[in-house]
Amino acid sequence: MKINDNIFELISEMEYIISNNTLSKNTFINAGLSVDDYGYRYPVRISLDGDKEESKTQIREKVHTYEQVTKVWDDKAQEYKVIKRVKPTPDMLDTMYYAFGSLKLYIGDALVEVLKFLENRYNIDFNELEEKMHNVQE
Predict the structure, then answer these.
(1) What mean pLDDT, rounded, does the chain reach?
(2) CA geometry: angle at 59 spanning 81 and 65, to 5°?
(3) How far is CA 112 from the centre of its chain?
(4) What 3-state DSSP class applies to 70?
(5) Residues 126, 116: contact at Cβ < 8 Å?
(6) How far is 47 from 136, CA to CA, in rounded Å?
(7) Which of 28-37's residues contact partners 24+ apart within 8 Å by CB, and which partners?
């Protein structure tokens, strides 16, 4: 399987579904609250532009955005700081992870493995399927 923009978009959608299910459902049920109304999603981290510094980001929303520069007020420094937001790309996939204490779950790599497993088991090609789907949408 080739990790192209279509596959990266598919993986970002799958990651979004997984992260939206990272909570204690029993806590909400016992409190009489609806899980659907909670709105929390577990943050995924990704290294942007090969930097060592990791940014929390919602990959699904960022896949469709382009590079942009934003000014953000820093209360501590009492000044505006320029933040460059970069569109995640397929080559960043292996840097996507969830931090669980000192452990990291590399969700990008895990989802690639799941897709490869499904391709082998059911003799399907996700690159072909995604190409067909994107051609239909255009």
Answers:
(1) 77
(2) 65
(3) 13
(4) strand
(5) no
(6) 33
(7) none
